[in-house]
Amino acid sequence: MNPKAWAPVVSAWSIDLMGQLSSKYAGRHGVPHASSLNELLQLWMSCKATRTLMDIYTQCLSSMINTCPDACVDALLDTSVQHSPHFDWVVAHIGSSFPNTIISRVLSCGLKDFCVHGAAPVDLLFPSAADKRVPKIASVVGILGHLASRHSGSIKQELLRMFHESLGPMRDQQQKATVPFLLQLAVMSPMLLGTISAELVDSLKPSVLSQLHQHFAALPREDLENMVSIVVHLICQTSAGAYRILQFLVNTAMPASVITTPGLAVHDSVREACDRIIQLLLLNLQKLVYNRGTASLGDAPPRAVPFLDELKGHVRELCVETLRLERKRFLWQHQLLGLLSVYCTPSCATDALFYLLTLARSQEELGLATQLYAVLSSCMSDLLPATVKKCVCQIHMGGLSEQHMVQLFHNLALIVQWEGEGPASMSAQLGAVLSLHLYDLGQLLLHHNPEVAEAASLLLSVCPMPQTIRPAHLLVIIRSAVHQFFLVLHRQCPTGISYSSRLLSAAMKAILQQLVEGALHPGNAELFGGLAELPTGDDAGLEGARVSLLDINRRFTAAVNFSGSVWSVFHAGVIGRGLKPSHPPSRQEPEEIVHNVQNFLSLLVRCCRGGCYSAPEPLTQTAAVNPEAAKVVAVVLVESVCPDVTNSELGWPPEEHTRTTVERDIQICRRFRDNPLLFQLLRLVAAGPPALCYCSVLLRGLLATLMAHWEASRHSDTTSSPWHLHASCILVACMAEGSLLPPVLGNMHEIFHQLVPFEVHLLLLSVWDYMRDNSPLPQKFTFQADKGLFFRDFSRDCDVGKYLCVLHNVLHKNIDRLGLLSGRFQP
């Protein structure tokens, strides 16, 4: 009948009695431990006495809930302070019955007690000291902790309400102490901190920040510093919403990132405060991270940093923000990336470097990756190999887009080419690490995207070759590189040609073989002025080749009258398909052909000289071609042009022998006529004596065919057969350059254009006679150790004079035109 007078007294008596009973019988046999809250609650609620006391307190609280429930809640808090944790089952049951009332009134009573005892801000970092000065604070934390599992939304809503109401016009001391009180709860309860942190940050609009600034503007400097230290401590202990908190601090502290719309601008003091918080946060994180190593020397596990644990999943976002290079903003986040990498080594370290290398678009941005590596390499071993391994795995597992792959390759190549400050720099070590993944990167030379293949070619061209590599892997890389070279020639891509040339500029026989075979392939012949590849298959014949014999015979028998005859005539079809299709016209411009030939021959020359990359140079500077490399080119030439001939056929037979090899000689001549690059390759082989000896069968076939042509020619001058004249001149010049002919015979091609065809035939016949008597054998060459080259002493051969009779007769006959040149043909 009178709850206002009796409810506080009766509720205090009942709640105190339940507390005494709980503590008294806590150690009895059969009573569950205080941590087993559900079992303990079932035990006490099955006892009629305690159940009746609970009903009495519940009725008292119900009767006062709409008027003044603080007296009942105060009794609950006082008892909780005295008998916790044995009293927790009572708190759990009452909180479940009146969640909203208990949450709001517990916080209100806790705040009143906090104001009465006057906890200083410095106590907030020391919960044990605060517990002694503010006894009920621990009970508040405990009660809210019990309710958080089912009523976290209500707790969060009430905490936010208290925070925002405290920022209004100052009315009393309790309102001023609300924020310190909430900070105290957050320090003592990580659960409450996680419940409110993310939503609290979202509610900190510019207007709220201005109110918060005004609220604390009058505090002494020492108290403000203590408050900032508390905030930094809480941020380090925050896990949920850590990235949102970081972005809020950075965006608020960074002037360029703050919204400057009228009415929404943030006060400069707020920015300075956030700047100060970020700097102290980084300093505190640095202490926590680097002190973990000393703390873990004992048996205790390293102390966790929840803030960094949560940021592990946001490494990519941190890298993206860092690469924006916005004043101090990127410096803070770059430092945080370093701390996160050390804390979560090695996963975060490799992730951070991987994202920086992949997403950087300028040298300034790429420098952040090298700076981070410089910081981390001092405390982490094998960081760079692990990072490169992650890059390779991401590429082959499809974790990177093609655009990012291109950017990654360009960035890695740029770092390799940077001049490092020492042997420990990233650029000095990256090349050696990348060479361990040469096979994995080489496969990307065949990528369907030309940009990816070109970027892979650039990266491989600047990587040093490993000391050892599996032959199978090497062959795959070489084939891929050669294929890429001819692809960029087809596309006329100058940068791609440059990258591929640098990649293939290594003195390896397999590279030379693949390059020559690729250049002589019918699909690439058109690049160098050769005839385009003929169409193949059923469509290569005449347009009307597919006919029906039945239809033909019907028309045939209808047109011819065979009545009265015993004979029947049937049309059996047409033998063959008619004329061979003509070669399509070349799609290459003359300038493009010259450019392609120059690029290809320059690459071959560099390969034959030992692989040193240099700018393209004319083919005339081929005096230093390595003899072994030239031999490889010679062997591949013979195998490509005339595959049925072995390298043992070096001897030069008599002229009559050409009658047995007419078909082969014509085939050889046709190949040289269809592909002008073969003559250029012969010149290259001739520059490395005695390699031209191994092309003996090609020289014989060409010479025999040209002799037959000039003998049968009925033209009045040689210029009427321009190709045969050019072939005759270049053949004799190559044989002279390759030291197969003495100089006096090797100069005769200079007068071919002023002679009649039969005179050219006679001169070539004298060349044949000389070669027959002085076979092109490598044994006739002597090695000069001081020059590293082979040379041939023609004085050891038979007298050259007897092979000059025809030449001198021709000169005498044409003395009026060739008299001035006669001095060049004296032995």
TrEMBL record:
Domain of life, source organism: Eukaryota
Domain Integrator complex subunit 5 C-terminal: 136-818
GO cellular component, one term: integrator complex
Domain Integrator complex subunit 5 N-terminal: 2-115
Annotated GO biological process: RNA polymerase II transcription initiation surveillance; snRNA 3'-end processing
Residue ranges crossing the lipid bilayer per the database entry: none
PANTHER family: INTEGRATOR COMPLEX SUBUNIT 5
Protein name, entry field: Integrator complex subunit 5
Species for this entry: Pelodiscus sinensis
Gene: INTS5
